[in-house]
Amino acid sequence: MAKKAIDILKVYKNENGPDISTTNNRVIEKDGLYFKDIDGSGELKPFDDWRLSPSERAKALLDTLTIDEKLGQIFISDWRTAAKQEDKTKLDESGYLDEGDFNGKTIFGEQNLPSTSVLLKDWWARHLILRENPNPEDLTNYLNQLNAVAEECEHFIPVQVVSNSRNENGEVVFGMNDASGVFAAWPGTLGIAAAVRGDSLDIIDRFGECVRNQWNAAGLRKGYMYMADVISDPRWQRSYGTFGEDPKLICDIFERLIPAVQGSDEGVTTDGVAMTVKHFPGGGARENGFDPHYSMGQWNVYATEGSLEKYHLPAFQVAAYKNVSSVMPYYSKPSKEKSKSQHSLKGSEVDMKPYGFAFNKYFIDDMLRNEMGFKGYINSDTGIVHNMRWGVEMLDEPERIGFAVNHVGVDLISGLFDIEYGKEALARATNNYYDKHDVPEGFTKEQLVLTPEALDRAVLRTLTEMFALGMFENPYRDPENAKKVISDTESYWKEAMDVHRKSVVLLKNDGTLPLQANKKVYVECFHKKPEDAEKSTEALRNALKDRLTLTDTPENADYAILFANPSSGEYFNATPGYLELDLCEDKVVVNVDNEGKPTEETHKETTLYGVNRIKEISETVHANGGKVIANVNVTLAWQLGNLEPYVDALTAGFDTYPSAVIDVMKGEFKPVGKMPVTLPRGDEVLKVNKDGVCISPNDVPGYDKDKYIQDSLKDENGKAYAYRDTAGNYYELDFSLSY
Fold first, then answer.
1. What is the 3-state secondary structure (H, E, C) of 394-441?
2. What is the Cα–Cα distance from 216 to 116, expressed in whole angstroms?
3. Closest C-alpha to 225, from 182, 162, 270
4. Is the CB of residue 527 less than 8 Å from the CB of residue 567?
5. Contact 483, 136 (CB under 8 A)
6. CB 426: neighbour CB atoms within 10 A?
């Protein structure tokens, strides 16, 4: 496609039906109505007829597709916009599509990729992942251009581009928080949960509406969002993307969030955005925090009897009940050896076969589909064919594809465009491959090949979603309108800012807050990296110079306001030991071996550079009769023993804008947020013994851990796990103070 799609777009309006938009006049007029001519035949066929149901149309179209067309549609992978191409001569005439080749390695494997046009026309790929953060106009033009190329194919099948969530503030992290600041930016999901706990679930209705309207305006119609996982091991790197540790609240949120984003209780609508809820059956049950992006985190351990049913499954049941469009299983696999007896929500005993959940027929087919009633499609997590193939390492790539799609029921495999491996898996169903090659022990040939029936089932499900979204009729969007809805609509940005304020939790206050006027204030930010701290401090001082009377040194301050932004670990790579939650600098901690057990060796960890200066600043300010106030950014359940004792007032934010925190500190907004997660007391309640077993169970949320912790660690109130501050308050689920 050479010309800019929006410049050649034609729109045909049906009085009581959908608009039909096209860049090459593939339109049929009949009975006074307009229809998209999907196969270019000029004849109205069932798949063209928007008066039929999405499932009827999908089945009719499926029956006309070739094997190559189908194979291209069971894989989804990252794709690049024009911004990634340094050689501008390799862009299409519109300037939005990269028509160069790409040869290289990613975290998910190595691949040689073609131009965008070849990908769409010859490879028949129709599912792409966007990890860049273009402005609304460029994003919309890019999505339009992809669909214009798709219209040049024999069968028009829209290009569905998916993204991780884009409406929360936070550090941009590949695969978790790919974008921030273009769409209306609410606080992190933990912050949304804190605001909801303190205010109302009505926040979720407005948040979901914002997501739906802004994404739909740009033509972005599917999101890898949101996480229904319950935090039960506080060292899990992905905690900040959850709604906290309370299964009931998470259920209540998803009951309202799914229809708000998708458009209805019955599933997606033509103005909705399809949701992919993750990570089934709950990623929070980590073994001592290890993440399954690396080998030590490949197990889900349910050390507490009944924990799967009680804590981790309920929100996914709500998602199924609310007809969520798709579900993403986690990489990890269940450990029978390390787990106690578990049952499904229907009471059946859980089969703990050691396969990653995307390869686990019991969890996907028996539990999720048959028992929980899930009707949508399964979208695997990214990389299961290559790097994160836990439990099926003994299979080759075609066998992993066949096993996931044919045997388990996965419909869309995320990772690389493994179309050639898919062809091989399909060929092995009929070419007598296993007459000359051994079937891996523990498997059967029928489980490992890709059958035409399984391929059809997978493609049928994703086609049905795109028909229901109205993408066949009207995949194009107006870039100017997208800019208006996303950037210029004040209401969503104002509402998001209001929720930022509501997300702030007041944890400690001796009467210091609200701030008194006309006092001298020293401001400093702390990060894991000193350069980040310096940059943030300068930015915050510039932002506050008209709101506070600033001083350059603690010695002259009536107030010191300290923003602590700790960080720990990476979720693609294991640390030498357990992920550190203490606010610390150069703390000596133990290493772990390949089985995740502590060793005699040690290393140093830093989560907050300069943390030891906090005590010095406190002593200096207090010597002058001043007060010290701090805010901690809770992206993980931090241990606050090196911060809280030295401050007179303490707030918690959750990727909350500093300006919103200051609004609360100044008393311009009454604090209403409540803790969505329990902060642990210290190392003593996270200690791991020589056998790799944590003193507090990894599969139980913080609010319930005291039931399983030894009495010798409990205080006079029978509490052991939650952090207790110098005022005697426990920083546990639902805790908050106010003015």
1. CCCHHHHHHHHHHHHCCCEEEECCCHHHHHHHHHCCCCCHHHHCCCCC
2. 23
3. 162
4. yes
5. yes
6. 24
Q: Is residue 157 part of a domain?
A: no
Residue 737 tokens read as 């103070």
CATH of residue 657:
3.40.50.1700
Ramachandran area for residue 709 (φ above 0: left; ψ -120 to 50: alpha; else beta): beta
User: Structural domain tally of the chain?
Assistant: 1
- How far is it, in rounded angstroms, from Cα 385 to Cα 397? 6
Cα–Cα distance between 284 and 281 in angstroms, integer? 9
CA distance 34 to 31: 8
SS3 142: helix
Q: Burial of 563 by CB count in 10 Å (0-12 exposed, 13-18 middle, 19+ buried)?
A: buried
Taking only Cα atoms into account, the Rg of the chain, rounded to an integer number of angstroms, comes to 27
Stretch 100-111: mean pLDDT = 78
Beta bridge mates, 506: 651, 737
Strand 75-78 relative to strand 127-129: parallel, antiparallel, unpaired? parallel
Q: Which domain holds residue 560?
A: 504-566+608-679
For residues 187 and 197, the answer to whether their CB atoms sit within 8 Å is no
Tokens of 350: 């859980």
User: Which tens digits make up the pLDDT trace of 181-216?
Assistant: 799 999 999 999 999 999 999 999 999 999 999 999
| Secondary element (H or E) of residue 679 | none
Q: What is the dihedral of CA 197, 199, 203, 205, to 10 degrees?
A: 90
662 vs 668: CA distance, rounded Å: 8
pLDDT, tens digit, 9 for 90 and up, residues 602-629: 999 999 999 999 999 999 999 999 999 9
Q: Where do we find the tokens 């000029």?
A: 42
Q: Is residue 427, in this structure, part of any structural domain at all?
A: no
Phi then psi dihedrals of residue 66, to 5 deg: -80, 165
Query: Do residues 546 and 554 lie in contact, with contact meaning Cβ atoms separated by under 8 Å?
Result: no
Q: How far is CA 479 from CA 202, 213, 343, 485, 654, in A?
A: 30, 14, 50, 10, 32
Q: Using CA atoms, how far apart are residues 314 and 230, in angstroms rounded to an integer?
A: 10
b/e burial code for range 69-105 (CB count within 10 A of at least 16 → b): bbbbbbbbbbbbbbeebeeeeebbebebbbbbeeeee
Q: How far apart, in whole angstroms, are the C-alpha atoms of residue 460 and residue 59?
A: 6
The average confidence (pLDDT) of the chain is 95
Which pLDDT band holds residue 597 (cuts at 50, 70, 90)?
very high
pLDDT band at 177 (very low <50, low <70, confident <90, very high): low
Helices 202-218 & 189-198 angle (0-180, nearest 10): 140
Which of 156, 230, 233 shows the shortest CA–CA distance to 193? 230
- The label of the residue with tokens 């040049």 reads 152
Within a domain: residue 348?
Answer: no
How far does the chain reach from its first CA to its final CA, in angstroms? 61
pTM to 2 decimal places: 0.96
State how far the alpha carbon of 60 is from the alpha carbons of 39, 295, 389, 696, in Å: 12, 43, 35, 54
Distance in angstroms (rounded) separating the CA atoms of residues 243 and 375: 24
> For residue 129, which of 92, 166, 86, 89 has the smallest C-alpha distance?
166
- Distance (Å, whole) CA 568 – CA 570: 7
499 membership: H or E segment, kind and range: helix 490-503
Q: How far apart are CA 625 and CA 485, in angstroms?
A: 50
Query: Are 212 and 677 in contact, with CB atoms under 8 Å apart?
Result: no
Strand 109-113 to strand 102-106: parallel, antiparallel, or no bridges (unpaired)?
A: antiparallel
In 10 A of CB 123, how many CB atoms? 17
Output the CA–CA distances (angstroms, integers) from residue 670 to 508, 656, 690, 732, in the order listed. 14, 15, 47, 20
Whether residue 112 lies inside any domain: the answer is: no
Whether 174 has a pLDDT exceeding 60, the answer reads no
Q: What is the pLDDT of residue 385?
A: 96
